[in-house]
Amino acid sequence: MNNGRKPVGILAVQGDFELHAKMLERLGAAWKLVKRPADLSGAAALIMPGGESTTMLKFFQEEGLGPAVKDFAAQGKPIFGTCAGAILLAREVLNPPQDHLGLLDITIERNAYGRQIDSSVERGECPEISSKPVEMVFIRAPIIRRVGEGVRVLGRAGGLPVLVEQGNILAATFHPELTKDETIHRYFIGKIADGK
Fold first, then answer.
1. How would CATH label the architecture of 8-194?
2. 100 an active-site residue?
3. What is the CA radius of gyration of the chain?
4. Are strands 120-124 and 134-138 parallel, antiparallel or unpaired?
């Protein structure tokens, strides 16, 4: 699978951005690291990995990345946020409330599963994109508490929405890069090819 030579940008502030890069390589997709607004130039899409959302927000403010990412989304380019990345994309953040990009009409609660010790690996259902269960790694994961009318729930685990999509924005409360399961990244790359 090739995303047409244009690379997928991977936000390289913190989190497992290197594992996202390895997943893209396995799928034959080009990638580049993004640390500043100028790094988004020429990128076909953007992955916003996990990490600590407040730390990432501070970096966004220092580097002016917030407006750049919003502009990137306004151009219709796909953006995929995992865990903290999903928190940053949300329209409303709880526990506690914090700034966000507001690109995805969901309400999300930070660290809702508990502390690091409460992390888990589950098999969730993503019937629209996979005929078999998908391995999902939850680490201090957020919970999506509200899904807006224009948001599609693509995946569930434990009865909760864990993978959602609104137009060109995709978000997961888990870490697909920590498994060998390529389902989620393959779907995201398909959004570039399909021009969704």
1. 3-Layer(aba) Sandwich (3.40)
2. no
3. 15
4. antiparallel
The answer to whether residue 18 is catalytic is no
The catalytically annotated residue of 20, 109, 126, 177 is: 177
pLDDT number for residue 114: 57
State pLDDT tens for residues 137-177.
Answer: 998 889 999 999 999 999 999 899 999 999 999 999 999 99
Q: Select which of 83, 100, 109, 165 is catalytic.
A: 83
Residue 112's pLDDT is what?
64
HEC letters along 45-90: EEEECCCCHHHHHHHHHHHCHHHHHHHHHHCCCCEEEECHHHHHHE
pLDDT (tens digit per residue) in 22-49:
999 999 999 999 999 999 999 999 999 9
Give me the catalytic one of 20, 109, 165, 175: 175
Has 63 been annotated as catalytic? no
Query: Would you give the distance in Å from CA 62 to the centre of its chain?
Result: 21
Give the SS3 label for residue 186: helix
